[in-house]
């Protein structure tokens, strides 16, 4: 699938170029967010933010990945799995994996990791989930069994949270097994607390010593030199996709013809300088237009700058959004939230910076699912989207031409508001000033700029808005807990491919399904019962009291495709009429990182044929897929001076 070198739009991998053997051409220099000398590993250390551990993502493989074309689970370390009606689950591992210390990767390693998940109440950390299993045991060298806490739990939901979402297998039994034993042996709350404390204080360093921290993927961290972490291909790696339909023979680590060097540069000026000196092949793009043009002259372009029609429609992450204070008299009224959505168009917010316009996709339809999930649940494929069901939903402002001040005025008047001298007053006759809290420019310039534009649209409508930029440490603690706010900038979550998980992120409930309060949301989340007009698709229908928790619990269980589809549409309608989140944009798979395409070639999704894009092993919008290509064979990526065929 390729064509012209480095243009990213070709249809056939080009295997005609001559091979060169220079060290510069065989080392991919990428950016990292942590100083390598300081790098240490413990998924559960309280001092670690998930982002600090991104350096480690290439060195482990995941249990399973999501096949975006077939929309199903594809095993990676897991070979097969089965769910019995009584809630017993069997997982079978591939017998071809080894750790970088040379030992076999076996069921006991995964048992160790799952028990650590039980000990800590969170599986895999990162975007992990609460453990929904118990009684884990190895039943063979490569087989393990456990029981679901809820026997009728949806297998798809379980696999997503426990096997696919950020589910790198890192817990070598010899390095971490004692914590699984501590969990097994703990008979009191004090014993569990002591085990948790021991684990959070564990330090695994140096990260390049495979006896201390062994990996299992194609990339093996071998040395730290100054600010650079070096990865070498692990010769004994055997790709789980060696027998896939697109693989031309076995894919093994000794076939990979390039290495990785991940370097830390603390600021944009140093990163841009490194790009100009070609010390970096992949980095964040420069901020100024002139610097961007200088980089383009060298050969840098967005790492995934493919035509929109090549991007798989299910490659989006919800990027920018705003939470409402659902317990405030102003924003707690759904009519006020709906009015805001009618007068603030999303497209102008997402395209304020032309350099990011292709990188962001405005969230056109309010469903709580994002455009990728709307494709799945509202109309099959991208060409048939949106269908009649989605188009029957209430349409809020998408472009500036869609702003509907008449509808917004009617909603506020229905709430008892009046407009005096061009300014809205609430039902008590008090002038309204919305308190909008956002991120300062040094934390997130995009959110800051979007907030300015939201304020301008609301002020123009007469809904006076005061914008305050506040550091996260204050915004997410003192201000959040005070309740003295109406809208607050946030990173809402990710499009997770399962409706329940997306709804879980986008409905800001006050408690979880077990009835426990959700600490981070304090008292500002929404109530479980809301008023919604029915039937679905009629915003002027009769209002009914609906328990959203009950709908969500139902989505957690085994359902037929028809039942699930109907329920997803109903919950999406509840979201459409409740507006629990002001969603602005979704990150796309284009333009996030820039790559020196004069030195490296990359290929697009190619209608699902490129395995690096087909299987959700990468974080689209966060990482270039280049460092993951070797796990699938390097036909789809390589130096421009080689044939790029290093194993596949």
Short description:
By secondary structure, the protein is an alpha+beta fold. 28% of the residues lie in helices and 19% in strands. Mean pLDDT is 84; it is low at 1-23, 312-316 and 643-648.
Uncertain segments = 1-23, 312-316, 643-648
* Number of helices, where a helix is a run of at least 4 consecutive DSSP H or I residues: 18
**Strand share of the residues?**
15-25%
What fold name stands as the CATH topology of the largest domain? Dipeptide-binding Protein, domain 3
CATH architecture of the largest domain: Roll
Helix content: 25-40%
Shape: globular
Reading off the top of the CATH hierarchy, the class of the largest domain is best stated as Alpha Beta
> Which sheet architecture does the biggest sheet show?
6 strands, mixed
Quantity of strands, as a count: 25
Q: Largest sheet, order of strands side by side?
A: 14-22-13-19-17-18
Give the CATH H-level superfamily of the largest domain: Dipeptide-binding Protein, Domain 3
* N-to-C span: 13 Å
């Amino acid at each position: 699938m390729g064509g012209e070198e480095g243009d990213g739009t070709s249809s056939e991998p080009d295997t005609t170029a001559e091979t060169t053997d220079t060290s510069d051409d065989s080392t991919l220099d990428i950016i990292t967010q942590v100083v390598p000398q300081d790098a240490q590993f413990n998924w559960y250390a309280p001092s670690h933010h998930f982002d600090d551990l991104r350096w480690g993502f290439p060195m482990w493989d995941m249990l399973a990945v999501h096949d975006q074309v077939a929309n199903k689970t594809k095993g990676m370390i897991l070979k097969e799995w089965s769910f019995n009606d009584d809630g017993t689950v069997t997982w079978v591992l591939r017998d071809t994996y080894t750790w970088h210390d040379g030992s076999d990767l076996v069921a006991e390693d995964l048992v160790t990791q799952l028990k650590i998940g039980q000990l800590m109440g969170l599986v895999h950390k990162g975007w992990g989930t609460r453990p929904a299993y118990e009684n884990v045991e190895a039943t063979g060298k490569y087989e393990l069994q456990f029981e679901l806490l809820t026997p009728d739990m949806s297998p798809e939901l379980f696999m997503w949270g426990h096997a696919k979402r950020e589910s790198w297998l890192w817990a070598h039994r010899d390095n971490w097994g004692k914590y699984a034993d501590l969990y097994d042996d703990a008979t009191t709350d004090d014993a569990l607390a002591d085990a948790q404390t021991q684990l959070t204080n564990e330090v695994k360093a140096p990260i390049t010593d495979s006896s201390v921290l062994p990996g299992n993927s194609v990339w093996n961290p071998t040395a730290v030199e100054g600010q650079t972490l070096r990865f070498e291909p692990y010769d004994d790696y055997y790709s789980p996709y060696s027998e896939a339909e697109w693989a031309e023979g076995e894919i093994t680590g000794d076939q990979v013809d390039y290495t990785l060097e991940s370097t830390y540069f603390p600021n944009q000026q140093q990163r841009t300088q490194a790009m100009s000196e070609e010390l970096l092949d992949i980095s964040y793009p420069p901020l100024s237009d002139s610097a961007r043009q200088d980089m383009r002259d060298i050969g840098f372009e967005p790492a995934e700058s493919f035509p929109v029609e090549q991007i798989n429609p299910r490659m989006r992450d919800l990027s920018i959004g705003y939470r409402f204070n659902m317990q405030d008299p102003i924003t707690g009224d759904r009519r006020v939230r709906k009015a805001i959505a009618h007068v603030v168009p999303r497209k102008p917010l997402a395209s304020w910076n032309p350099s990011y316009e292709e990188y962001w996709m405005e969230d056109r339809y309010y469903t709580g699912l994002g455009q990728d999930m709307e494709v799945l649940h509202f109309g099959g494929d991208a060409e048939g989207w949106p269908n009649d069901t989605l188009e029957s939903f209430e349409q809020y402002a998408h472009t500036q031409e869609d702003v509907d001040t008449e509808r917004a005025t009617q909603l506020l008047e229905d709430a008892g508001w009046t407009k005096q001298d061009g300014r809205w007053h609430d039902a008590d006759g008090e002038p309204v000033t919305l308190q909008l809290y956002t991120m300062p420019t040094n934390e997130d310039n995009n959110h800051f700029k979007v907030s300015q534009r939201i304020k301008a649209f609301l002020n123009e409508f007469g809904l006076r808005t005061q914008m305050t930029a506040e550091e996260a440490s204050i915004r997410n603690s003192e201000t959040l807990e005070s309740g003295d706010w109406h809208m607050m900038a946030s990173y809402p979550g990710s499009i997770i491919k399962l409706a329940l998980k997306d709804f879980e992120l986008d409905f800001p409930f006050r408690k979880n399904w077990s009835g426990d309060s959700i600490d981070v949301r304090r008292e500002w989340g929404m109530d479980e019962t809301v008023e919604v007009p029915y039937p679905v698709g009629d915003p002027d229908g009769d209002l009914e009291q609906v328990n959203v928790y009950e709908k969500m619990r139902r989505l957690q269980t085994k359902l037929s495709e028809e039942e699930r589809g109907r329920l997803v549409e109903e919950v999406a309608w509840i979201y459409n009429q409740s507006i629990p989140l002001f969603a602005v944009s979704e990150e796309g798979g284009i333009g996030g990182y820039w790559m020196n395409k004069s030195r490296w070639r990359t290929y697009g999704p190619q209608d699902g044929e490129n395995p690096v894009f087909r299987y959700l092993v990468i974080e689209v919008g966060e990482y270039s897929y280049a460092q993951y290509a070797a796990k699938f064979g390097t036909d789809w990526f390589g130096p421009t001076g080689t044939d790029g065929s290093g194993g596949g």
